[in-house]
Amino acid sequence: MIDLLKLAVGPVVGYFKKRAELKGLEHTQKSEIIKRKTEIISDKVGFNHAWELAAMQADEAGHLRLVSFYMFNAIIIFACYDPVEAQKIWVALDAIPKWIVTVQLSMIAFIWAAKPLANLGAGLIQKGK
Questions:
Q1: What burial letters (b/e) apply to 68-78, b meaning 16+ CB within 10 Å?
Q2: What is the CB neighbour count within 10 angstroms for residue 38?
Q3: Crossing angle between the packed helical segments 62-81 and 83-94, to the nearest 10 degrees
Q4: Which residues contact 90 (CB under 8 A, 6 or more apart)?
Q5: What is the pLDDT of residue 53?
Q6: Distances (CA, A) of 43 to 8, 56, 59
Q7: CA–CA distance from 16 to each of 9, 19, 103 (Å)?
Q8: pLDDT in tens, 28-66
């Protein structure tokens, strides 16, 4: 009976140990990023801290860009496998009010454009110095 209990609980314990280890690594990575940002900001000789900070933050919205990419392409990919059912989805999407589509596209555009525009702005500021 105890062996059966160990067999059932073992994977759960392993999962939580691995999860704790990953959280620890994530915390270490975030603290290193904060330390590096502090070093860059305090570097008065390099004069490139704005560009480097923008580059370091480039991946903060990466998961949002990935989700939005799949959100837009899911119907197209689905249409390759089942065109008849995909046509029903297109018809249903056509019934959505235009203002909702506009708001949704604006949010997605911001997610995709915010970081490149920040990098462009940092580069322009750097050139102006």
A1: beeeeeeeeee
A2: 10
A3: 120
A4: 75
A5: 60
A6: 54, 16, 23
A7: 11, 5, 40
A8: 888 888 887 777 666 655 555 565 565 555 556 667 777
DSSP H or E stretch at residue 81: helix 62-81
Q: Higher-confidence residue: 14 or 91?
A: 91
Q: How far apart (Å, rounded) are the C-alpha atoms in residues 39 and 123?
A: 19
Provide the CA 90 distance to its chain's centre, in angstroms.
27
- The model's pTM is 0.38
Contact between 118 and 51 (Cβ < 8 Å): no
Sequence-separated (6 or more) residues with CB below 8 Å from residue 101: none
How far apart are the two ends of the chain, measured CA to CA in Å? Answer: 74
